[in-house]
Amino acid sequence: MTQLIAAGTDVTVSKRLAIAAKVKNGMIANSMSLAVLCVLVYFSFASPHFATAGNLATILVAAAPFALIACGQTLVILTGGIDLSVGSVIALAAMSGAIVAKANPEALWLGIAVAVAAGLVCGAINGILVAGLNLPAFVATLAMLTTASGLAYVVGGGAPINGIPAGFGAFANTTLFGLELPVWLMFLVLVVFALLMRRTTYGTRVYAVGGNITAARIAGIKVRGVLYSVYAVSGALAGLAGGLLSSRVVTAAPTLGAGYELDAIAAVVIGGASLMGGRGTIWGTLIGLLLIQTLNNGLDLLLVPSYWQSVIKGALIAAAVAVDVFVARRKS
Amino acid sequence: MTQLIAAGTDVTVSKRLAIAAKVKNGMIANSMSLAVLCVLVYFSFASPHFATAGNLATILVAAAPFALIACGQTLVILTGGIDLSVGSVIALAAMSGAIVAKANPEALWLGIAVAVAAGLVCGAINGILVAGLNLPAFVATLAMLTTASGLAYVVGGGAPINGIPAGFGAFANTTLFGLELPVWLMFLVLVVFALLMRRTTYGTRVYAVGGNITAARIAGIKVRGVLYSVYAVSGALAGLAGGLLSSRVVTAAPTLGAGYELDAIAAVVIGGASLMGGRGTIWGTLIGLLLIQTLNNGLDLLLVPSYWQSVIKGALIAAAVAVDVFVARRKS
Amino acid sequence: MQLHSTQEYPDRSPDAPVVECRDVHKAFGHVSVLKGVDLALRSGTVTALVGENGAGKSTLMKIIAGQEAPSAGEIRVGEKTLRAASVREAREAGIAIVPQELAPIPDMTIYENLFLGRELKGALGLLDRSAMIAEAGRLLREFELVVDPRRPMRELSLAVQQIVEIIKSTSTGCDVLLLDEPTSAISEVEVARLYRIIDRLRERGVAMIYTTHKMEEIRAVADRVVVLRDGNLIEDRPAGEITDDQIVTAMIGRDLDEIFPEIPPPRDEAPRLLVADIEVEGFGTPVSFSVRPGEIVALAGLVGAGRTELIETIMGIRRRRRGSVTVSGRAVRRNDPAAAIGAHMAIVPEDRQVAGLVPRLSILENGILPRLSRFSVGGWKRTALARSRVTDVMNDMRLRSASLDQPVAALSGGNQQKVVLGRWLTDRVDVLLLDEPTRGVDVGARSQIYRIIADLASSGMAIVMASSDLPEVLGLAHRVLVMRRGRIERDISLATTTATAAQEEIFSHAAGFHASPR
Amino acid sequence: GPDAAEGGEHRLRIGVTVYFMSPFITQGKEGMEAYAKARDIDLLWNSAEQDVSTQASQIDQMINQHVDAIIVAPVQADSLGPQLARAKKEGIPVIAVNATLKDTSNITTSVLPDDVKAGEQAMQIMVDKLNGKGRIAILQGALGSSFEIDRTKGMHNILAKNPDIEVVAEGAADWKPEVAGNKVKTWLQSAGGKIDGIVAQNDDMALGATKGLAEAGRKDILVVGIDGIEDGLKAVQNGSMLGTNLQHGVVEMAAGLAVARLVATGKPYQKAYTYNMPIITEGNVDAAYQNVVTGKDAFLAKLPGLVDANVTSGDISAGSLNDQAG
Ligand SMILES: Nc1ncnc2c1ncn2[C@@H]1O[C@H](COP(=O)(O)OP(=O)(O)OP(=O)(O)O)[C@@H](O)[C@H]1O
Ligand SMILES: Nc1ncnc2c1ncn2[C@@H]1O[C@H](COP(=O)(O)OP(=O)(O)OP(=O)(O)O)[C@@H](O)[C@H]1O
Ligand SMILES: [Mg+2]
Ligand SMILES: [Mg+2]
After folding, report:
1. CB within 8 Å of D116: residues ≥ 6 apart
2. Is C131 contained in some domain?
3. A70-79, A185-194, B14-23, C3-12: least confidently modelled range
4. Counting one residue from A and one from D, how many pairs have CB atoms under 8 Å apart?
């Protein structure tokens, strides 16, 4: 019912309404969460090994680097951009970090720091290209994809970095309260970014820039700064993911992370974000990510041959999103 | 419908003006064409082997399959969509075509026909997902990318198709007036699509749907039909490209065409199209394609190591587009 | 001059309705917008559809045009019931619409937009572009619009876009034409041209619905007045049998006293806003003027006079190459809207869709957008504070909405306009720049907005208002700057001139009859 | 070629197109360059980035330039028919190196590793250690490559003879360690922890598997790899891997160039050369490590002599492991 907000409207009432709307839109009514639930339930029945603590931990460890880059990707996509470069930024960061770690066996954390820094530099260049030089994000980050991938080979002289001190594995393989460090890091990043997007003015700025860049500019938002920042963040998170990945296997290859960008973007879009910008949430991305990672794990557990896995994954993702779109249209 | 032919307007004057405007906007003033020219001139000086008839023919042969998928991709991108699946549709089409060709050594053309048909089916499914079920194009075609790639393995039982009759190579390796058949096919497809987009109502509809879907609807355009058609066209052209590729090297592998989608999309976007839809031309795509293919060939000729090639290609593409964007902004 | 040279129009009995809405209901979720509307349109008549913002006018038009599905009820054309939400069928039945929120294809040229869906074809069924260009040029000239039909739509001002949209819909040979606030962005000269077109269509037997918030327009075109309130059709009478006051009362459910409030004289202080020697982009003559605290200065002129550009340049949205803008004695950094906001300037842009709102964000979030730092501590949003302040100002603006968490896209046009103005008022504003501030706002809300503007002026704000609405200019401003071709032709003080004299002077200077020799 | 007569002395120009700059090829390139420098050969080096079509274009480009010979490490075994036929027509010899070409009618000779045998050897190490009875998992490379196909075939050859070895899981980890680590952990879950050994088709995946096993707290499970990369040899040294097979890229690829030189200069050559990968276990790993890692420069210095001797003798893997053999 249309109602005039009368003078002295009870603020708490409208707050309660807001919360109800949020719950309805974001969680329970989100059919994608339901799809993930279905997949979880199916695998639990299909394989006795699926719903075990050990296996869930395995899923989380595998998900961690994707969660990092998907967070950054969410921000970029919210502004209406795209970051295709994360896959090869991971490779470049991992290679740079590994070389530094190998050269400084007494200060292995330097390896991780350098990986993050390398990612940040790549992201910052993306930011300059998009925000400063007005390149379409697709072109800018595609150019970075190619360049960073080439540099990853250059850094290692074409070969993977071998002979990294075993201690470098500590970052990704230390267990804390039963879960590996990367998993905790994933939780931390997800919570921080969810808060950032929901509760801070930075989040509002990102949504505004993606929702209507002209209006955002006229409202005094420094559009360039916002654009710049999301690419920098995405790059830094890709760098961190690269560092963790190479710490996990204590090696670094120029092909590390190849193709990860598509999985990350898929997670964001499956989670309900629009590639036109302005729509999407960290929570949605998490759901999308869980769908992909659970499928990867469950199909492996059921020993489905690799190529049938691709077929099933493709079909299921299309189906889940189709149902989601259908439900969303029915609601409106 | 009303016919609104004006009596007594000087048609020739406005026609001449129109041509002038076209030349200014589309060709001379397009700084991307200039970038391609610079690259051509540089390579001609840098390598005595570049500007030879044989080498230019080699560039054209290599460009042909990309030109086909880039044409389809242009249409899809003009509607505001994207077709990520072309790479693996190429693989699936090539595998299906090769199997049929192998089984029917007396009717090898069947192989090409089946490849086109397989591509068309994939494209049609993309069309249904996007136009019928309203899936975001990115998700729909990413799902198809995964599925078709899996199916390409399934078709061949995980391995490439061996033992294709040598005669299958005739399609791609026959020379006509000094140029291979695929090159003529490329010219044909480019001309047909350029005409289609500039001179027919179909082209106008595609631009309108991408430019403003609401306005297109209000104008009575069958938006779904248009969307459906561009994906079908893109799929069929990918199928044809797959058939030609496998004929060229007389083989078919499930990895054939992997990653081609990015090169095709890059060509379209470098050519000035907007991923938001509504802006772009076949001519622009051709220019973008030439830039990429010339770089590939010239850098190979100069024996630049492959990873430095990546670095250079990435940087040059970013630079060329940056100049293009800068010039375009200065003009307006 | 004839729009349609070849189309034949069948004879119709003048009484048979061309199109009929039967018991049309519409609800968005739980919000009921139309509650059973019956409306029959007859050939060769113009029906003015009026009502408050959010009454459901646009919704009804969209349902007739097949853009929305009714929740219940049907649309009939002749003996046929139209399929719900089928633009195609509506079009084929001869229904055309000029939508309230324009839908141009920005990357296409004017002529391509004009001929969208009915392109002219030549040999082999190929497009005949030169014929389309020639014909488009003719249609534009008929509207006295001197613009190359090959220009892309995105380069044109909102006004020109609206004119193109009008030409597009009126030249299709439709039987039913729905005009949803077709004059919201254009000035009186163009409005007069629209009247001529409407008269011609009426003679040809086209049935029209015309939505507007301006009484003069109702009087000028309507044969019949239909009033919607809260989704109900509560008044349906021949135009001659209803007075202005009756219309207003029917619309807002109460009497409206004087539309224009008492405007106190400006304070006799140093200028609050000082604009010196700035160039309006694309024109090149320097412009200077000043505004004192409490003063309302109106910018008048024809479409394309450069008012929007001037305002945008002052706010730092457009590039300023030279000159200065000073607020309360302090120079404002150029080309930086954030600096302008920091200097306590505020703007209500002309095109709220493009420049004003982020449609997917909620009213609350749009409400705090220009004031993010005020509603945050260290970047952390103070949601409770924001909610209470935005609730306050939106109540002052009499915003109609289900809740502050509704996306602004779901508001009616007039209510969106209130959000665009109201959101600035959560904090101090010294200089308020208004570009067509009451575009699409209903009379009730308009008088409310005028009152707010008057209050803001009396609190010491300097207000610059570009408006194509002459009564608004005369009723609100202390001073009128008449613009033409990017320069100020005339500075008229309304305190010392009578309304009629001022009106005449504005017209003649805007049209260039007094053009100063260059 | 046009540049052929240069100061009277014919300087050889040999085109090389490889499938991709894999670590193996990168290593091999060093060997080829060392050999080319010592024997005054111009190398025209192109990488096809895993794309057959690109490789076809590169061969076209080399034919256009009239090189003296073309060395190809094909992206795909059964491919390039028309291009190689054209090379033959132009009288340019083609030598297949590292990966097979099915159609031998257009290739002059080949220098190939025995990937089937490598698969057999890897599996045999595992079978021997398990005394012919146990539960194992197989990590395959990217499906469809000739390496994956041949190594898989070799492994199954041995499995056929050992019915008491049960394969509880077999899947592709695309040559990548991080993928292998995840796969192995998942398989451990689905096998209820009952896995005795993992045979990987390359060392990268084997190493990834050891990391995954360590995360799962199962350092008792045996792992075997193929290729003998630096970290793989180290893992054999410290016992986290049971064994591997050494494919010494430097030796193998340089042999390819030496054969190409024989062909191009009209010397006699064999119809095919086979590189047998030495088995690396605890016993001989130190010598291998010396060759591949610590003494690499010294090894490269004497490589040309070693390779020429190998090509003459026909045993091109000689000296890969024991430097005194050269
Ligand atoms: N998509 C939508 N979702 C929810 N509510 C909507 C939507 N579209 C319109 N409404 C609501 O329907 C009501 C009627 O809107 P409509 O646009 O028809 O009003 P209007 O009479 O045209 O007003 P105006 O004079 O401001 O243009 C408004 O309250 C508006 O908030
Ligand atoms: N009648 C016209 N003929 C040709 N071009 C026009 C016309 N009207 C506007 N334009 C174009 O639009 C541009 C800007 O016009 P705009 O409408 O923004 O100015 P304005 O003074 O703000 O007018 P208003 O505020 O009345 O809409 C002009 O520079 C001109 O290029
Ligand atoms: Mg309306
Ligand atoms: Mg204006």
Report:
1. D150, D151, D153, D154, D157
2. no
3. C3-12
4. 89
